[in-house]
Amino acid sequence: MHQLQEEILEALDKVCSLLPDTMSASCKDFVDQYVPAIIEMLREEVDPSEVCQLMGLCSERMTLARGQCVCVCLLHNMALLTAM
């Protein structure tokens, strides 16, 4: 499972590198700070919406037009990856 975590971190770092310079460093900091803990919670089968709430990642500015938290959407997809 450690290899999967490394692959997820590498993929997210690549995503961060595609962002404008003004956002790239913040994105990488976020990945480094939060993603290992997020992956561990998903491995323990904590519901993605709970993970986001526990980590304070569902602020009003992080909400999609349909009222769903961006974090929850991303974590549902990440949960699918960690289940493989």
Question: What order do the helices and strands come in, and which of them pair?
Answer:
Layout: H1 2-18, H2 21-43, H3 48-54, H4 70-82
Provide an overview of this structure:
- There is one protein chain.
- The chain is mostly helical and 84 residues long.
- It is 71% helix and 0% strand.
- The protein has helices spanning 2-18, 21-43, 48-54, 70-82.
Termini distance?
Answer: 10 Å
Which class best fits the helix and strand makeup?
mainly alpha
Largest sheet: none
Known CATH architecture: Orthogonal Bundle
Specify the helix fraction band. over 70%
Number of strands: 0
- The rounded Rg comes to 13 Å
Query: What integer is the average pLDDT?
Result: 76
Instruction: Give the H and E element order.
Output: HHHH
Percent strand equals under 5%
The CATH topology annotation reads as: NK-Lysin
Describe the oligomeric state of these chains in a short phrase. Answer: single chain
Total DSSP helices: 4
The level 1 CATH classification is: Mainly Alpha
**Global outline:** globular
Q: Low-confidence spans: pLDDT under 50, at least 5 residues?
A: none
Tally of domains: 1
